[in-house]
Design a protein that fits this description.
The protein is an alpha+beta fold. The protein has two domains: 115 residues, no CATH class; 148 residues, no CATH class. Helix content is 25%, strand content 35%. The protein is built from four helices and 21 strands. It has a five-stranded antiparallel beta sheet. It has a three-stranded antiparallel beta sheet with strand order 9-10-13, with no helix packed on it. The longest helix is centred in the last third of the chain and has 35 residues. The model has no long low-confidence stretch (mean pLDDT 88). This is Flagellar hook-basal body protein. InterPro entries: Flag_bb_rod_N, Flagellar_basal_body_rod_CS, Flagellar_FlgE/F/G, Flg_bb/hook_C_dom, FlgE/F/G-like, LlgE_F_G-like_D1. Pfam families: Flg_bb_rod (PF00460), Flg_bbr_C (PF06429), LlgE_F_G_D1 (PF22692). It is found in: Bacterial flagellum basal body.
């Protein structure tokens, strides 16, 4: 394969990955608390070909003299846009919206017999009966919401429940209201190290835990900084117009690379005819 075709083929494969990211963003435009992901590209290895030019040609240059031949581009990483989405009023006491963009709820997810802490912006929670006159505040999938003392578990005989702006869980029983728990909100200070697990959840990857302590990546948020709005849900922060623009632009770049492969084939055909 010629160098031109190789460069274009490599870049096209990476552009397809970007199209997948854009498609995922657009598919989740109505997902509660969804955060947009943006693809970032970088160049692959570049070979420096010395054209034996005169030394004086290097004067005033910002790049090395000679021919630089690249090997295409790759999608180096995807960044998480933590900008807060618009709020939607629901009136449900257990519909919670975090007003700070880099704050997350914690949930305990059990899969294959193992339980780990995951993080989410989706604040649509429910009361999940546990038996023995107890209920847990949990996600729609039944994963318990975590508070300062672990999963939030309450006695079942309640008349009303509400969550304050700082995450205090107020329960009314026999006409008396008391605080029976406290949500523990965390702050993502290194959002690049969060790994998406599906269902709008994130976790700390094994690689990030080898390099950092969890408290350096997503520490517990200062209680004075926590802002929770009960009775509301956060919409996704996907900008459909921008995603459509990125989609068209990426498709055009993909077509350009495909065209370069076609032109390369035509040029090689002409060369073969001259022999």
């Amino acid at each position: 394969m010629s160098r031109i075709a190789m460069q274009a083929a490599v870049t096209m494969g990476q552009l397809q990955n970007k199209l997948d990211v854009i498609g995922n963003n657009m598919a989740n435009v109505d997902t509660t608390g969804f955060k947009t992901r943006n693809a970032e590209f970088s160049s692959l290895l570049v070979q420096q070909i010395n054209n034996l030019s005169a030394p004086e040609n290097a004067q005033g240059r910002l790049t090395p003299d000679g021919i630089r031949v690249g090997a295409g581009a790759r999608m180096s990483n995807t960044t998480l846009d933590l900008k807060a989405g618009a709020l939607k009023e629901t009136g449900r006491a257990l519909d919670l919206a975090l007003l700070k963009g880099n704050h997350f709820f914690q949930i305990a997810v059990t899969e294959n017999g193992e339980t780990e802490t995951r993080y989410t912006r989706a604040g649509n929670f429910y009361l999940n009966p546990l038996g023995n006159d107890q209920v847990a505040i949990a996600t729609a999938d039944g994963f318990p919401l975590l508070g300062a003392d672990g999963p939030v578990v309450l006695a079942d005989n309640m008349e009303a429940i509400s969550i304050t702006s700082t995450g205090a869980i107020e329960v009314t029983r026999n006409g008396q209201t008391a605080v029976e728990g406290q949500l523990q909100v965390v702050e993502a200070v290194r959002p690049r190290l969060l790994e998406a697990t599906g269902n709008n959840n994130f976790r700390l990857s094994e690689q990030s835990l080898q390099a950092f302590d969890p408290g350096e990546i997503i520490p517990v948020a200062d209680e004075a900084e926590v802002q929770i709005k009960s009775g509301s849900l956060e919409n996704s922060n996907v900008d459909v117009a921008k995603q459509m623009t990125d989609l068209v632009t990426t498709q055009r770049v993909y077509q350009l690379n495909a065209r370069s492969i076609s032109m390369n084939d035509q040029m090689m055909g002409l060369i073969n005819q001259l022999r």
